[in-house]
Specification:
The complex is a heterodimer of chains A (158) and B (151). Chain A has a domain of 89 residues. Helix content of chain A is 58%, strand content 0%. Chain A is built from seven helices and no strands. Chain A is elongated. In chain B, helix 1 runs antiparallel to helix 2 and helix 1 packs parallel to helix 3. The chains are: A mainly alpha (158), B mainly alpha (151). At the A-B interface, helix 4, helix 5, helix 6 and helix 7 of A face helix 1 and helix 3 of B.
Amino acid sequence: MSVDSGRDEAGVGTSDDDDEALSWGESSDKSYVEGPVVERTGWVPDQGLEDDDGDDDELPEGVMSSTMLVVHGVFGAIFLLFAVAWLKSISNVAPSFASPLADWMWRIGTWFAVASPVIWFLATVYLVPVAKPSRRFVWFVVGVVVLIPWPFLIGASA
Amino acid sequence: MSTSDATPGLEDEPLETQGPEAEGPDSFDGEGAVEHPAGPRAVAVLLLVAGVIFAWSIYAAVGNLTQVPAQFDAYRDFVTKGGAPELAKTTPWPALIAVLLVPVVGYLVALRLGRGRSLRVRLVSFALTYAAVCALTVSLTAYVFKVSSLL
């Protein structure tokens, strides 16, 4: 059995097939299928980078940088941990009230306290536009400082 | 985060001065750049409802401010007469006053954040500050419990 003869047989008659494989065919071909026309209605990278000031580092509107994505992930995790800490410790702070209304208002307040980290995170994302990453970062930091779950940390109970 | 963007303070450029175009496409409303200021009637209702809710926090704080020191005084007299004045505890006045001030500050901050903005933004602002007020109030109350251990 000759190896060379086998290679020759494989090479003969396949050159045209290779050329056809490298082309999409023509519209007159029966197997030709016209693909769907995609309209580019969204953000176009080339257009977004053509600013008047020539700042190539500035991202187009509505696009968050990878750094800010990481920041959102980190602060989201922190706020989620805060919410869990509030949930774990809120039952330890239960003063007694004379009226049912006061008792219910306190309960509502505790629910808001448990949800406060989540509310702060979502409200910051909603209120501060993505084009202001520094301000959003500041709001996240303020939220972390304000919403520290002190009942969980100091272990207060009543 | 862009390094070229200078870090502004929260008061340097309040949200209401950003203009409608500052509303990012990441907003929940999905309305993009369109934001209509809230009508005066809707604003009045919102301010009234939020005012009542925040006023309750102030009312509760006033009650604590008048009742908790009396309990500390009674406990202080009790341990002093019992010959153990070292067990007397100092009234946590800073925490009690802070509980009174927190709702006021929260209401004013929500007013400032939502000034000239849509009703939804105003509502979110009040929800944000009320949640923070509740968290701070519970934290300060827990602190009072911690330092007193008599309530």
